[in-house]
Specification:
The complex is a heterodimer of chains A (about 475) and B (about 425). Chain A is built from 12 helices and 22 strands. With about 475 residues, chain A is of the alpha/beta class. By secondary structure, chain B is of the alpha/beta class. Chain B is about 45% helix and about 10% strand. Chain B has helices at about 1-5, 25-30, 35-45, 50-60, 70-75, 100-105, 110-120, 135-150, 180-190, 220-230, 230-235, 270-275, 310-315, 335-350, 355-370, 380-390, 400-415, 415-425; strands at about 85-90, 125-130, 165-170, 215, 245-255, 260-265, 265-270, 285-290, 300, 310, 325-330. In chain B, the strands form 3 sheets. A 5-stranded mixed beta sheet of chain B has the order 6-5-11-8-9. A 4-stranded parallel beta sheet of chain B has the order 3-2-1-4, with helices on both faces. A two-stranded antiparallel sheet of chain B has the order 7-10. In chain B, helix 7 crosses helix 10 and helix 16 (about 380-390) runs antiparallel to helix 17 (about 400-415). The chains are: A alpha/beta (about 475), B alpha/beta (about 425).
Chain lengths: ~475, ~425
């Protein structure tokens, strides 16, 4: 059916709201409480529009489209209603944008500039509510900044189903509150930070870390499980990397936000995903070693080449944390030399949610699908281990005992086992230091981009394989040398 | 009830058709007056559609305040729906209104009979009475009446030996004015917070637990037995043609005989105040009347001259008949302070769900509190105009309008008092009422 919004005639679907139809056609109708994945609250009243033939202004979010409906968002009364609603919302809002992390990406701020009155009418002191306090170990709540849109409440009710939040008290005393302070933290709680249209809910991790306009998002993929949710990793913009900030703050991951991906995660992400940037601060090895001896990359590659060339029956444990491109590089370079075994690099930690019926999958690796597709999925059994005299371990692995007396070449980002050092250890780059694709458990490919530069003595796995292949090819042409 | 006592017992009355005694509320007394005959007649000789047709023909309109035609509300319900619910709204909270309490206390069986007839017409197997939490005697009388009715086979299975069955459940409210709004009443009944719902869908389509639900006021339902017994046409002949029937008018404020009066619609307002209620307290001149509960726009003495007590007449005067609770205000009353009593109420009772009402009611009260405290500023007068205008029509439920209309009408009709208060930091009417 066709409806008219201002001067544009657009095609609308049956059962759709005016707001949805307008958004699909790129017509901006302001909204706070409306969220496409949550139920209709109709409470913020900023989306009021004029409909021809209807005396009152109607909320666009709860207004079903009807054939030949004529909607106006430019009518003077609509502008006036928006101004009045903004006036009401700002009445007791502290306007402490200067110390609020949300400033710069705050819907309330944007709408106040766009639709607010030129100056406040209020002569009274602002009413105060509870200021920044811990809602949970992850989230801070500022009830003064809250506009009671109930997005967070509806999220915990309808999406995460934890019922963690509620609005208590009546009228102007109404506040968002954690309903049961003793309850287990919602595994998806951090989403409420993103859907909050103001600075009421803030990440404790990101609190006062940076103004958001100094940062930029880079599209990435969460490596926390085989769902492979799309995320944005935030780094400092190039023009804002200042010498006075120091090396660390210029080159760090500041935070994670959801990158909406209707194919995989929609607009949601679990808390583990919101913690992806913390991988960058986990202690890792930054230079190759030969046994206990630090070595250069060249030395390490050379030694690895020697071990491979000497091995009669080499085996490789490929990483389910590796990208499709790296797996292809391995297959092309060394696939024929090695017997390939697969494994899950990461497993659920003790307090972690193993699996649920929403996003979290039991396989805690982003690319098991890619491994299975290329190499099948044969796990390494103790009996198989006896048959090999060399293991190329790719990714984290803790069980060297299984290898018996076989030689070990280990490629991983983090320090290998302490009790028995591998013969060669080459540190690898992290996901956010390279680009590539993962295939999630459903086989849906998802691309991630390079966010930060890798440390100098760390190698990309694909480069290691390419160098090994090149050196092995040289050896083959000079058989007497081995 | 002094007003009621002063009135003659008129047998043609819908409600006050008998002398109130210590046991006139019982089943026996009600039956002796012909009670439950309408129910018997309906169950024996009528189809549910017939009851609805009689109610439609009677022109009965909702008595809760919105004055919505009852027949048309019932007609919205899909009678084929597997479940239909009926809710009786007994959450009488509008300041100045006390008619439902009288019905619950004195003619509870008439309400029960009305509920059963409505349930019969609507194919409702379950009916609920959402009763105001502060009511005590009314609650005891209603529960007593239901116990009596259940024991007499009037409520429950096989009512009066027929196949018709209906349970009536009494639910006490938690003390929220907003729960008198039908959709928040349903939320509250479901055990949720008393937040009004977005409309559409209206309760008649999607109400209690998602089923079609009719919410009717106590007085509305208590009219139904009379209509069924004597026919819709007889009811339509009572009072004003456009807005027929009898209504219970609760008169409070500065009159000599405040109380509840049953009158046909179309009755002159001046006659009610100056004859039935015995005129203004202390012989003072009349200053203003709030005609239908605190939410309706105030009318000045001049405006009520030719006014009759029916919806069209009040609408013409720019107000509403609302719940029929008249608040009579004598000359000498400070309208600024009076308005602050009202804004304090709406501030306290706003549910806080939608922005304009949550922020606006508190803001209006803040301004008025300051004005009354002698700290008003000239800009406050403009704000008292702008703020309610920002609420009016922009809220999720009618409570926003209810809070805005008194302020707008007081500012329009008694602006000089507000200006005086702001300019002189004292009331124009200081001490004159008591003098």
């Amino acid at each position: 059916m066709e409806i008219t919004i201002d001067d544009r005639t657009i095609e609308a679907n049956r059962g759709e709201s005016v707001l949805q139809a307008a958004m699909r056609h790129g017509i901006e109708i302001p909204h706070f409480c409306y969220h496409p994945r949550l139920s209709i609250a109709g409470s913020c009243r900023i989306c009021l529009v004029k409909v021809e033939g209807v005396p009152k202004l109607m909320p666009a979010c709860n207004l079903s489209v009807a054939p030949n409906m004529k909607v106006s968002t430019l009518a003077p009364e609509v502008g006036r209603a928006r101004e009045q609603v903004m006036q009401f919302l700002m009445l007791n809002h502290p306007v402490d944008c200067g110390i609020c992390d949300k400033a710069g990406e705050c819907r309330l701020q944007d709408y106040e500039f766009a639709f607010g009155p030129p100056r406040s009418r209020s002569l009274d002191a602002k009413h105060h509510k509870r200021k920044l306090h811990d809602l949970s170990p992850r989230i801070q709540l500022d009830n003064e900044r809250c506009i009671l849109c109930s997005r967070c409440v509806r999220f915990t009710r309808e999406i995460s189903k934890s019922n963690m939040l509620g609005i208590v008290e009546r009228g102007a005393h109404a506040v968002v509150e954690r309903l049961d302070p003793e309850s287990v933290d919602d595994a998806y709680s951090d989403n409420v930070i993103g859907i909050c249209p103001t600075g009421a809910l803030l990440s404790r991790d990101f609190l006062y870390q940076s103004r958001v306009w100094f940062l930029e998002p880079v599209r990435s993929v969460c490596t926390g499980c085989s769902r492979g949710c799309s995320i944005d990793l935030w780094r400092r913009k190039k023009e804002w990397r200042l010498r006075s900030l120091g090396e660390e703050r210029n080159n760090m991951l500041y935070r994670v936000t959801v990158h909406e991906n209707p194919e995989i995660n929609g607009p949601w992400l679990c808390n583990k995903g919101f913690d992806q940037h913390k991988l960058a601060t986990r202690e890792r090895t930054l230079s190759p070693t030969l046994g206990d001896v630090p070595a250069s990359i060249g030395q390490a590659i050379a030694r690895a080449r020697e071990l491979i060339a000497a091995a009669r029956s080499p085996a490789a444990l490929v990483s389910a944390q590796a990208s499709n491109e790296e797996l292809d590089a391995f297959k092309a370079a060394l696939g024929e030399r090695f017997r390939v075994y697969a494994r899950e690099d990461s497993v659920a930690q003790p307090e972690e949610v193993v699996e649920d019926d929403f996003l979290i999958k039991a396989d805690k690796n982003p690319n098991s699908y890619g491994v299975r597709e290329r190499f099948g999925w044969k796990a390494l059994a103790a009996a198989d281990a006896q048959a090999h005299d060399l293991f190329l371990v790719w990714g984290d692995w803790g069980d060297y005992a299984m290898f018996g007396r076989a030689r070990v070449i280990h490629l991983s980002s983090f320090a290998p086992q302490r009790d028995r050092r591998p013969d060669v250890h080459i540190p690898l780059s992290m996901t956010f230091e390279r680009s590539g694709t993962f295939c999630n458990f459903e086989g849906k490919p998802n691309r991630f981009e390079k966010v930060l530069d890798k440390p100098p003595l760390v190698e990309h796995a694909a480069d290691v394989f390419a160098q090994l292949e090149a050196e092995l090819a040289v050896l083959q042409r000079l058989p007497e040398a081995s | 009830m002094s007003g009621q006592a002063a009135q003659d017992v008129r047998t043609e009355n819908v409600f006050m058709s008998f002398a109130v005694t210590s046991d006139s509320h019982t089943l026996d007394a009600y039956r002796a007056r012909g009670g439950y005959e309408a129910l018997g007649k309906a169950l024996r000789t009528m189809q549910p559609g017939d009851v609805e047709r009689e109610v439609t023909a009677s022109g009965l309109r909702g008595r809760g305040g919105a004055n919505f035609p009852v027949g048309s509300k019932w007609s919205f319900v899909n009678k084929e729906s597997p479940v239909v619910y009926l809710c009786c709204n007994a959450d009488e909270g509008e300041p100045g209104t006390f008619k439902d309490r009288w019905i619950l206390e004195h003619v509870p069986h008439q309400l029960v009979e009305g509920i059963l007839l409505a349930a019969f017409a609507l194919h409702a197997r379950h009916a609920f009475v959402y009763i105001r939490g502060e009511f005590d005697l009314a609650l005891r009388r209603l529960r007593g009446a239901l116990d009596e009715a259940r024991a007499a086979g009037l409520v429950g299975e096989h009512i009066l030996g027929s196949a018709f069955a209906c349970d009536v459940v009494v639910h006490r409210g938690g003390g929220a004015y907003v729960c008198g709004e039908e959709s928040s009443l349903i939320n509250s009944l479901e055990g949720k917070k008393g937040y009004p719902r977005n409309k559409p869908p209206f309760p008649a389509v999607k109400g209690f637990y998602g089923a079609p639900t009719v919410v009717n006021n106590v007085e509305t339902l208590a009219n139904v037995p009379w209509i069924v017994a004597r026919g819709g046409a007889a009811y339509a002949a009572l009072g004003n043609k456009a807005n027929p029937g009898h209504r219970l008018f609760g008169v409070s404020g500065h009159v000599n005989k405040p109380g509840l009066y049953e009158l046909p619609t179309g009755y002159p307002m001046k006659k009610l105040i100056f004859e039935d209620c015995g005129g203004i307290l202390g012989g003072k001149p009349l200053k203003a009347v709030i005609p239908g509960g605190s939410s309706t726009p105030v009318l000045t003495a001049g405006e009520i001259e030719a006014l009759t007590l029916d919806a069209p007449s009040l609408q013409q005067a720019g107000s509403m008949l609302g719940s029929g609770g008249l608040i009579v205000i004598a000359e000498g009353t400070c309208m600024v302070r009076l308005l602050q009593v009202l804004t304090r109420f709406y501030r306290h009772e706003s549910c806080g769900q939608c922005t304009p009402c949550r922020e606006g009611t508190a803001w209006m009260d803040d301004i008025l509190a300051r004005v009354v405290d002698g700290r008003g500023q000239a800009a406050d007068l403009a704000s008292l105009q702008e703020v309610p205008e920002g609420i009016l029509g922009n809220t999720l439920c009618a409570l926003g309008d209810a809070a805005a209309m008194p302020v707008l009408s007081f500012m329009k009709k008694f602006r000089n008092e507000f200006e005086y208060f702001v300019a002189n930091r004292r009331s124009l009417n200081d001490g004159r009422l008591e003098a």
